[in-house]
Amino acid sequence: MTTTARTQPQRTRRDTSRGKFFPYVLGTGFMALSFAATAFAIYALAVGEPFHGFAATVLVALPAGLYLRRLGSPDADPSRREALITVLLSWLFLPALGAIPYVFGGQLPPLDAFFESMSGFTTTGATTIQDFSLVPDSLLLWRAVSQWVGGVGILVLFLAVFPQLAIAGRQMFHAEMPGPSQERFTPRLRQTALAVVALYAALTIACAAAYAVAGMAPFDALAHAFGTLAAGGFSANAASFADYSAPALQWIAILFMTLSGASFILVFRAVSGQPRALLRDAEFRVYIGILVVGGGILAMLLAGEYGTADAIRHGLFQSVSIVTSTGFASADFREWGLPAQGVILALLFVGGCGGSASGGVKVVRWLIIAKHTAREVRHAIHPRAVLPVRVGDRIVSEDAIRAVGAFITLYVGLFAFTTIALVFLGADFTSAFSASIASLGNTGPGLGPYAPIGQLDELSAVGKLLLMFAMYAGRLEVVTVFVIFTPGWWRLPRVWSRG
Fold first, then answer.
1. What integer is the mean pLDDT of 14-31?
2. Residue 262 · residue 353 · CB < 8 Å
3. Distance CA 204, CA 367 (A)
4. What is the pTM of this model?
């Protein structure tokens, strides 16, 4: 009897908070977007550019955000279902609101505006803009900020929000930050969120300052810094970094793109007095190896065209840009030979480190798959041997190996489906292949007509919708999206209930 009396209040508290986490998180996102749109409306007015799109965003987002926050609670204890819904709908509604300035600004039709916004918030960097000279600076900066928000948002969401949600929270945290084990880098979750935002912002400011010192105009420096740290790739220029002649700018981009593709936990430790944390990490060492080998191969292939020094710079820049899913271009690689384009195509499948702002499969997953495959080969010789899979000094659990296998299966399956669908819609195979993997990996540029900045304005409406779904699924780690198509999803307890 005593046990029942003690447990009853806890059950009531949990039930009354059900369904309040999702509206609170979404409402907070809406309000943050409305504040950003307000600042942009003021900026547009100050420089004499159209401000109606930003004002319309505020009129929609602010009241909706206030209403949703009133429905929710910051202390809510979400179910697994509600945690999933929060992630899935946040990355749909925020890009939808972010598309309003493109439509009301008279720049893009609704579908293209949603594509542009989804590309920004998922840090993909593909675009439907045909003539950058016709786009107001305020809207170009809005594009850059949208991918910066998408980059920091995915880090904060999976570092500081979901780890506190018991099983469901850990599951979602693990989905975005894959690896054998996860760790917080500050004792308290609020401090973790602040640490992420502070480090992300500090690196962005440092990157913008470095660009400006190296010769970029202040506006371009800020816009490119937003894209660099978010691993997003939106540029204020149609030719991306090929529009700038100073080699120093590309070397600065190489440095900060490399940081954006590294684990934020390790970068935080490195700047907090533990510089060896990066070098001790097995995934980071493989990541750097891939960047160097990819850049070296490209440099050898380009040496005859550019000369040794410039070939090294272009090769390393493009290797880092593609692997980290940033998508900047130092040159129009459509003019490079087929072997160099083949290297770029291969690098599109890699991705950055787990716990970074980059998209793609992630290096740690490839490490796990490679080591698991090697173990299976050894098992053929020694069937009774106990051979754990290790990444660095950590043993990978069998559950993690199965999860990675499922992720790779879904990832490749969605990539193949999107490629075939684009071919049926009229795209040539190379373009369809590269656009599919570039969208799913949140990289942006593909090959053929979609190089060097992922310009997809001529794609059909159905093709754009397909690639938008690929961006969305890739940013949310595929499994998170496909779970709603399983019968078990609909049998989970309801998120919202009366009382």
1. 78
2. yes
3. 29
4. 0.88
- Cβ(377)–Cβ(384) under 8 Å? no
Q: What are phi and psi of 267, to 5 degrees?
A: -65, -40
68 with 26: CB under 8 angstroms?
yes
Question: What is the distance in angstroms between the CA of the first residue and the CA of the last residue of the chain?
Answer: 25
Return d(Cα 132, Cα 135) in angstroms, integer: 5
CB 72 within 8 A of CB 90: no
pLDDT band at 192 (very low <50, low <70, confident <90, very high): low
Return the structure tokens found at 406.
């499922």
| Position 497 confidence tier, pLDDT thresholds 50, 70, 90 | very low
Confidence of residue 486 (pLDDT cuts 50, 70, 90): confident
Read off the tokens for 159.
Answer: 């570092």
* pLDDT for residue 127 is more than 70: yes
Which residues neighbour 59 within 8 Å (Cβ) at sequence distance 6 or greater? none
d(CA 46, CA 234): 24
CA separation for the pair 153, 159 (Å, rounded): 10
Give the Å distances, CA to CA, from 475 to 149, 162, 360, 421, 481.
Answer: 13, 16, 8, 20, 10
Predicted confidence (pLDDT) at residue 167 exceeds the cutoff of 80: no
- Residue 396, beta-bridge partner list: 389
The percent of residues in the chain predicted with pLDDT above 70, rounded, is 85
**Average pLDDT, rounded, for the chain:** 84
Tokens linked to 66:
């206030």
Q: Report whether pLDDT(443) > 80.
A: yes
User: What's the distance, CA 257 to chain centroid?
Assistant: 13
